[in-house]
Amino acid sequence: MFNRVLIANRGEIALRVLRACRELDVQTVMVYSKADEDAVYLRHADETICIGPGVSGESYLSIPNIISAAEIADVDAIHPGYGFLAENSHFAEICRSSNIEFIGPSAEIVSMMGDKARAREEAERAGIPVVPGSSGTISDEEEGLAVAREIGYPVLIKASAGGGGRGMRLAHNDISLVNGIHAARAEAEAAFGDGTLYMEKWVDKPRHVEVQILGDSYGNIIHLGERDCSVQRRNQKVLEEAPCADLPRDVRKKLHRSAVKLAKSVGFENAGTVEFILDEDDRFYFIEVNARIQVEHPVTEMITGIDLVKEQLRIASGDKLSHSQDQVKVKGHAIECRINAEDPDDDYRPCPGLVTSFIPPGGSGVRVDTHVYSGYRVPSLYDSLLGKVIVFKPTRAEAVATMRRALDEFVIEGIKTNLSLHRRILRNSVFAKGRYNTAFLKEYLLKG
Q1: Out of 194, 306, 347, 441, which could bridge 161 as a Cys pair, Cβ 3.0 to 4.6 Å?
Q2: What would the DSSP string read from start to end of 50-64?
Q3: pLDDT of residue 447 exceeding 60
């Protein structure tokens, strides 16, 4: 196991990684920006280093600053968390060329999976169903029009380097396709520095289901079940649950097998997720691989009893997987609500500011992952995620009831949050039945 690990992130995931390191008796070095100098988790680290001003490009996204801090602190490895540099293949390569282990997949795999069009090609090569679409990337609008006429409208234009719904446009005809290509390319270039696009046939109202995988350097790959991530707003996940409700047993098994098959075919190592969409007939199609720990990883931890961050650390240090596939047992049901600093009554506008009162829920089956406290000032420079409420119970009905209770207990004052949205979701009859899709919020809760 490593002696010292630098945590190259902030917020709740930085605290999550720090806790895993401490339980494994690994020293931690926490980097932070000046905007985060009052972060509560800094007092728990063995060493802290300021890496720049609040602007991400000069701190959390600055590879030279982070590598310099790692060398000064004499660390063995860097954990990137999620977001920022977690899926930056150049960063992974720089770490390892500096004799610092990158706690995640290899630079080659990060690069391959970060290119959504290439990942799609790898899935096709492995025999995994993919949504009908372009063979590779599209170079211009003429090529896009040819693909659209072949597979039929509506089509989805997607950025190869995309994520979080950025660089994505839906087109129903030739005019909207041409306009969508230009808009998606411009957005992708601004967000990712890469305007490469590909296209897929639009699947109406799909379910978004992902399979958690773990792989070690000895070629062992296992899955830890699936998560339903269909509650989304503008292609951003809002709530996740595991396992997926109302999923036929044979489809579940095929999803798991497909995820493991793809991971083995590319030599995947460390933690990641293979993401699929399911149509109304439960036919599934591969969409992408996330080569990192996910925001929603706690629901998988709750139903399997496996600490994913500790597994990341063990795998990166050269250990074999702690569990074989036969030893992975899924029990009970878990739900996670992402609590964001945003105003549901003002088009979900981000709401930074001073948290005057923060009283998280507790009780049996309730877990809260957060870095926030009463008196904490939410910066305006970063993602609005304040934390996550996770519940675990023997059945889905019990988990829903416990989450309702937990959300009612949660007190956050001084800023606006999306707690009210989550309370409405948990009391919605469609959600209670467990058969919902990515159009759920728009159709039932976001009208007007």
Answers
A1: 194
A2: E-S-SSGGGTTT-HH
A3: no
Q: pLDDT tens digit string along 43-70?
A: 999 999 999 999 999 999 999 999 999 9
At CA 383, angle to CA 364 and CA 341, rounded to 5?
A: 60
**pLDDT tens by residue, 157-211:** 999 887 777 899 999 999 999 999 999 999 999 888 899 999 999 999 999 999 9
| Four-way CATH pick for 132-201: 2.60.40.230, 3.30.1490.20, 3.40.50.720, 3.30.70.260 | 3.30.1490.20
For 279, phi then psi, to 5°, come to: -85, -175
Place of tokens 């207990």: 409
Which phi and psi (to 5°) does residue 309 adopt? -70, -40
**Annotated catalytic residue 292:** yes
Task: Let me know if domain 207-444 sits in CATH 3.30.470.20.
Answer: yes
What are the distances in angstroms from CA 225 to CA 6, 264, 397?
Answer: 30, 16, 19
Q: Supply the pTM of this predicted model.
A: 0.94
pLDDT in tens, 274-302: 999 999 999 999 999 999 999 999 999 99
Distance of alpha carbon 14 from alpha carbon 67, whole angstroms? 17
Rounded to 5°, angle at Cα 266 from 261 and 271: 80
Q: What are the domain boundaries of the chain?
A: 4-103, 132-201, 207-444
- The pLDDT of residue 192 is 86
Choosing from 169, 227, 292, 367, the catalytic residue is 292
Q: In which residue are the tokens 């977001």 written?
A: 83
